[in-house]
């Protein structure tokens, strides 16, 4: 990263001979001007302010990533679309926070031409830099060198010399940007002078905010689930108030609507494991390096993603501490201590916590986040049978969470050797599927760890069957199992539609939203009052029977606005109440999942709505299961394999279960996919992985041992395996 | 910290000329011998193994901390008590993990004489080193230089030269340790050759484990609550299975018994805040430096304790990330984003999470831990009145948690300016009291933040009362409030007795434990079966009415053992069922809180026990409140102030509320206290702080404005204030 001293020293070799002036943090040009006005020393008599904008144009994915950096006079207005056309880019979009961080090592509010010095040698050759002609003859051009607390003044020639000094930078253009002014000026967001007092907005949040400020018509979802899934997903999770972006990349805010779903899962699962005798507890989030590295295979799987604490206050820690990526090595030293005799078995504990896995892949809300919420259960048994029974009991609970709470169908099975949990013996899993992208997604895993960890951590008891003189040590059989907030992402992806989120009633914080309607200027205040009272009465009656109902009585919004508002947020059922409904002693119900309308007699309100909510819940699962089933294709010859993937399906194949074969399947499906042009930019043409060996094996045709061959390699097939592209 | 290269280089200047040999990790002398047996190069023909033991003798607190380091031949057996007498120490106790870390920068299993090189210059002058005479003429003495994976062999003279080279070390003795052998050999734990495969045990856990292995008679609590409160507390929390020590100093494992209490608090509080319209959510644990430092007063309060993540995998982060010590600066940038209009107010959210405050003071289970669980609520309102109403509503919920769930009385009030939350306007608090030590303890705080944070983070709405042309910006009024697992420590300290934990029924995971008894060798198997069946029937009947009952049917323990077992663990009610009870169609109940026994007719089992559990709950609060009330003393002249503190009471004084006066009170009560010899070592003669200005002010005598004077300084008194020594 560019350091201030290094930067100043570099600039000084380019004709720059002043020190930066310091001032208070500024948030916009007005404040910048004002702040500079208070500076007493080092200020030039005349100067111009600037903005540096970074775009990531939409490109065919065959082309390399080519960000565009615009360095402009602050008051230059230009048409970014026209600029895009000039540069031969179709769509000029502001770069996301991730691009700012990953490519330019900067954040909103600190952008200046000097961030070009941070770009890696692989990328710099593709960066386009555009310098506003209005700047090049200026003597004192103001930039924030590293943050908005300082300003340097450099001349046009120094600016150009600096840019010319960047190794590997090829595309630099001077342009009369003002000549590109047009009907659509660049949005104010993303300017150079906004400090990060308010959180750095990503592309998605900038868009959402801009539109939401612009009026009701833009509160909804614009992207199509079918044709622009990534953008659709981003819009849905943000605009439904499920989640917000956070100023630490890869971390997200789980907002109340989403957290409510998580609490429903917690309640259900807590009751389920309590019935199995599992008790909740809490272990520290910090792990010493020694404990972390006790189990070699296990740590190999996690080491590259471990976040390390090395400092407290201003003191360096004597020994760095890891933040748990999972708690096997946190807990099992204490299992060794607590388990002294077979009478201490089984030991069954669970904790609800967050874990940190600092992945460097693209983060995605709920699905891949650097910190996420989960539960992790850890149990120890005397025998394998007991342990494995529990592994499956837990898997059943996971399946029920998906199916009964989230209305998401899953396939239960066991992972291949390649895909199983690092350090365990067998990983069972529930696998789901996102029809819109044709990709499988792991829903939750329950591991049989065998005696591997108990040997590493010396968790032993004396054999109670032994004699008094001969009591051999037995290493306990262990399990661990985890389910995370990824569940919420899967639910959103499966049920959401082009109007926004669709929540299954069981996990919806608001199950029924009551909206007064049908009131016109012809109606009296008395009419209005009667409708309002009716809404409140209905709300109270529903709450009394345990239905989570709310009324939207805001008087400054139209019914239509309110309908959209709650549709985006996925409320399962809307009740419309107007004067005509009241005359008929009924209300109108509108389902979120299929927009079916029905009149509900007020005297049967509670019972009708209870049934209706159950019906919605059931229908959502039935519909999702149908979509899943249709996309799981039995594939019996290799030629059909990649085309099946490309038609957004999963494949069920007779498989040999060899790791080598799994690698070949991945390689062959990756290569073949590259020739396929149809895919969306955000869905890489990844190879297929084995998702699971389903517990429920297809029977038509059955696998005949020694006769049925593996679809890929021709070795003997052992079982059917579910393969697919996946998250 | 001593590094291997530096150590070897230092040793080489002292006559050492070999390289350390490497081997597998070893856990005891046998393994060490065996491991060295497999080393092919660099091994001397003859060598002796060693143990290095570190003690922290009990001392009068007027004397400086003086650890003792014993370097002995591994097979030298000596009497540590005799050694203590020789060194003029009363009680030779093994040093705790914290001492190993903080003073010697080492951990169990890595102790060697070389850790002396890690001791700070302030302490080294008080360290006593004892060298076993059996070593000084040896040629090849084996030590683990840094960990148990390596061994160096040095001669007696080199060892002595090394020890002599330590700057500032004054007390070095050679002793024929074997001559101190006696009836009480040093315990095996704490030896030099145990690697940290199992967690490093602290003094408390070593003791607990040793004793629990030794048989039933030592499962209970040995320390007296009255005379050795610190040790008593440590024993109770560990032996009741509430908590265990962890191998990262200042972090503890919250075991299921304690976590159950926390879940009861969560359930109660969640329902309470839901009724107030507060919604749960989850914000990331990481804070960027910029956000953290936005509010200056606030960060000043927390900066020295902030833990920093600087690395992920092997990659240095571009910008270090703080782990939240609290979430004001995490959340409020998003408040600024989400609150766009007065219609978005109030915004009320809460999260359950853990926070990290890396305190360098002595950690204490539940009370002062580097990571702890809590909830933090954050709300924003249009007006001060609304905000302050909520501050008090929350305080009421905190009081009810203490009183109704934990049977702990509290005093509600507001903090002095000096003690209030950094960055806020006013802090309300519930204050409790530990009679055994006479110290107050803050129970939970609810802050009115005013507009301070909203100004820093620019959380504004337009005044809805404004005209269409003049809508001034209003900064919102904010609150924040938090309650932590400290609650559990307070509950343990207040109710526990010399037999162990005493749990209030409402938060006890097991409310009733059923123990079969009265069976002798004269009874038949049929008798036994009848008693067992009766236990299970009673258990089932109680569970059916929602009483958390369990039966202890383990056949290898006596009833007496079981009584103690559940008494240590604080189960509120024991039912004893024997053949004679069954004849009378009754069972015997024994209360944990006061050991009162009563016969319970089986036909009135459920109703009797429901009443009994309520009575226990109520009695515990009444008893605790009486103890609290008796120790809050109205003090009207300064001469009584310190003597009142010294009699383990809190003082209620007319006070001027000036910060200067508060400082003076602290200074004067500290100085005066030093002359008092009676205090326990672990309770420093700290000065008194203001605990709160109680909402419920004493009326007899009332404060007469302009007339009543401050007890300390004679300025006009404004209100009564509660002062005391505190945690």
UniProtKB/TrEMBL annotation, chains A, B:
Residues 668-697 are annotated as: Disordered. GO terms for biological process: prolyl-tRNA aminoacylation. Its EC number is 6.1.1.15. Residues 261-504 form the Aminoacyl-transfer RNA synthetases class-II family profile domain. SMART domains: ProRS-C_1. It catalyses: tRNA(Pro) + L-proline + ATP = L-prolyl-tRNA(Pro) + AMP + diphosphate. SUPFAM superfamilies: C-terminal domain of ProRS, Class II aaRS ABD-related, Class II aaRS and biotin synthetases, YbaK/ProRS associated domain. Keywords: Aminoacyl-tRNA synthetase, ATP-binding, Ligase, Nucleotide-binding, Protein biosynthesis. Gene3D superfamilies: Anticodon-binding domain, Bira Bifunctional Protein, Domain 2, C-terminal domain of ProRS, YbaK/aminoacyl-tRNA synthetase-associated domain. One of its GO terms (cellular component) is cytoplasm. Belongs to the class-II aminoacyl-tRNA synthetase family. PANTHER family: BIFUNCTIONAL GLUTAMATE_PROLINE--TRNA LIGASE, PROLYL-TRNA SYNTHETASE. HAMAP family: Pro_tRNA_synth_type3. This is proline--tRNA ligase. It comes from Coemansia reversa (strain ATCC 12441 / NRRL 1564).
